[in-house]
Amino acid sequence: MQEPRRLNRDDLDERRIIYPESPDRNLVNRFRQLRTQLLEVSNNTNFSLVVTGAVEGAGASFMSVNLAAAFAFDQSKTALLVDCNLRYPSLHSLLDIMPDAGLTDFIEDPEYDIGRIIYPTGIPRLRLIPAGSRRESPSEFFTSWRMEEFISAIRERYPDRFIILDTSSIADSPDARILTELCDYTMLVVPHGKVTTTQVENAVGGIDPNKFVGAILNA
């Protein structure tokens, strides 16, 4: 497995990834507050969270990686980031990782060890499962029993870890809707000034209200 390049502060600033000493205190505090709110919802227990956009390009990946980084701030907590956007995977590039395998490889092969697709990111206490090989019909993967097995496997392997799944837009593909059924909570990312009220309402309507933790405006 590739050993990641340790991202320095300039790298993180360029990628808009938060870290405890980041000069962008507004951004850091925004994600710390969001982390606190999610912990209140979960009664301070670990959880799995789907982060999806109201439309494509809403900024779900930006929200996912920074929320995971915020959980990793705490030395008593760890975070696992999973790139479930099989159409447009981006987290491995954002974190400067060249993966040999990923989520699709685990789902395709019943004998695949999940440990082979978990990568250190160079950010303390934060790990990544990349998307893996791109596929023409990614929703077929998420409907398979292997996806359920994947969720169970990462829960069992890391019972104290916060798991964040970055997905395609809930409006543009069935992927996010399928994943919301398998996870504890769902958060919707709404791009400022780029969607209509109807689009947001339709996106919210596709999420189980018992799992919906709210919409986040991404400016």
The tally of strands reads 7
Amino-to-carboxy terminus distance = 36 Å
Taken in chain order, the helices and strands follow as HHEHEHHEEHHEHEHE
Rough outline: globular
| Relative helix content | 25-40%
Index terms:
nucleotide-binding; 219 residues; 7 strands; alpha/beta
Provide an overview of this structure.
This is Polysaccharide biosynthesis protein. The chain is of the alpha/beta class and 219 residues long. It contains nine helices and seven strands. The chain has helices spanning 9-15, 25-41, 60-73, 91-94, 103-108, 139-142, 145-157, 175-182, 197-205, and strands at residues 48-53, 78-83, 119-120, 126-129, 161-166, 185-191, 212-218. It has a seven-stranded mixed sheet with strand order 3-4-2-5-1-6-7, with helices on both faces. Strand 3 (119-120) and strand 4 form a beta hairpin. It starts with 8 loop residues before the first helix and ends with a strand. The model has no long low-confidence stretch (mean pLDDT 90).
Summarize the structure.
With 219 residues, the protein is an alpha/beta fold.
List the helices and strands and how they pair.
Blueprint: H1 9-15, H2 25-41, E1 48-53, H3 60-73, E2 78-83, H4 91-94, H5 103-108, E3 119-120, E4 126-129, H6 139-142, H7 145-157, E5 161-166, H8 175-182, E6 185-191, H9 197-205, E7 212-218
Parallel strand pairs: 1-5, 1-6, 2-4, 2-5, 6-7
Antiparallel strand pairs: 3-4
